[in-house]
Structures are given as C-alpha cells and as structure tokens.
Amino acid sequence: MNPRFIGTPREKFSFFNTLLCLVKSLQGQCVTVDLRNDSYVCGLLLTVDGFMNLSFSTAVYCDPQGNEFFFENIFVQCRNIRYVHIPEHVSIINNIKNEVAKEVRNKPTGRAMDKSRKAKKAYNQHMQTVASLHRH
Ligand SMILES: *[C@@H]1O[C@H](CO)[C@@H](O)[C@H](O)[C@H]1NC(C)=O
Ligand SMILES: *[C@@H]1O[C@H](CO)[C@@H](O)[C@H](O)[C@H]1NC(C)=O
Fold first, then answer.
1. Is residue 94 in some structural domain?
2. What CA–CA distances, in Å, run from 43 to 6, 47, 54, 85?
3. CATH number of the domain that 52 lies in?
4. What is the distance in A from the centroid of ligand 1 to the CA of 36?
5. Which ligand is nearest to the CA of 34?
6. Given 20, 66, 84, 99, which is the most exposed site by the fewest CB atoms within 10 A?
7. pTM for the whole thing?
8. Looking at the domain assignment, is residue 136 inside a domain?
C-alpha cells in the first residue's frame, strides 16, 4: 500500500488537523464503521481518502434489523459515517505519530527548497534589473 498521501490542499489540511490520520492509519486492518442510518459495515479497510470516504474489501453490511450481507467491495461515503471503531489492539497515539511521521518523511523537501531558493535568486535578479532601469 502506498503510504504517501496524495490529495488537494484541503484534504492535506484535514489529514494534519483532524483525526483523519488516525482513520488512515487503520488501512489494511479489519474495521467496523457505524453508519448514520443504524446499519454498519465491518470489513478490511482498503483506502481512506482526504474526506474520510472509506473503501472496504471482503466486507459485511449489517442492516438495522440485523440482516447481514456480504460484499466483495463496499464504498462508504464520509457523510454516511456515524463513527469508526478503533480496534482494541491499536495504540491511538502511536498510530497518529507514525502516520504523521510517514507523511512528513515522504515530503520532497529537498527539491521544494531548491525550487524556492531558485525562485528567490530569480526574484533578486528581477529586483536588480528593475533598480538598474530606474538608475538609467
Ligand atoms: C444505510 O446507508 C448505507 C450507506 O449509504 C446504504 O448503503 C444502506 O442501504 C442504508 N441502509 C438503510 C437501511 O437505509
Ligand atoms: C468523498 O466525499 C466528498 C465529500 O462528501 C465528496 O465530495 C467526494 O466526491 C467523495 N469521493 C468519492 C469518490 O465519492
């Protein structure tokens, strides 16, 4: 699974500023999610996007009457989620730390810095050009 988080700035903001990172850290595990209409889904959590839409494989959907339905794949829209059960064996703090560390580690900071240094140099060059134009 690709740990690198890809998404819009808004999704990135959610990742670092909400518990989205905790839910994301559960990818690859069996998770139970209560839906807002009193049904729930229990299955292998495949992906969590930046809105917290969830995709499951080999999942059981259980309706409010307790009838179970098996699905190869289920996609749960974030707005249908009431809450996500964190499995008991999961250390919440460690998972958050690891997930955020993964994200920070994967950032191509070196190249981004090179780019900004170049941009700064170019900007200074432009300013000098402008200044010299005024002098003439
Ligand atoms: C509950 O919500 C889920 C997700 O939107 C939907 O698939 C399911 O059919 C709904 N169940 C009931 C009983 O409304
Ligand atoms: C995920 O949820 C957001 C917000 O409800 C929605 O805009 C987006 O289209 C959803 N993604 C998918 C693949 O449905």
1. no
2. 23, 12, 11, 12
3. 2.30.30.100
4. 8
5. 1
6. 66
7. 0.71
8. no
Q: Helix, strand, or coil here: 129?
A: helix
Instruction: Indicate the number of domains in the chain.
Output: 1
Residue 12 lies in a domain: no
Q: Which domain holds residue 30?
A: 26-88
Residue 48 near residue 24, CB atoms below 8 Å: yes
Give the distance (Å) from ligand 1 centre to CA of residue 92.
Answer: 29
Would 58 be classed as within a structural domain? Answer: yes
Going residue by residue through the chain, which has 136 residues, state the pLDDT in tens, using 9 for 90 and above. 445 566 788 887 777 777 888 999 999 999 999 999 999 999 999 999 988 999 999 999 999 999 999 999 999 999 999 989 998 899 888 998 898 888 887 766 555 556 677 777 876 776 777 677 666 5
Q: Which residue has the tokens 């969590």?
A: 48
Nearest CA among 2, 23, 12 for reference residue 76 = 23
Determine the distance separating the centroid of ligand 2 and the alpha carbon of 79, expressed in angstroms.
9
Given CA atoms 85, 11, 44, 75 in this order, what sign does their dihedral have? positive
To test the pocket of ligand 2, the residue of 14, 77, 81 to mutate (highest count of ligand atoms within 8 Å of its CB) is: 77
pLDDT at position 103: 81
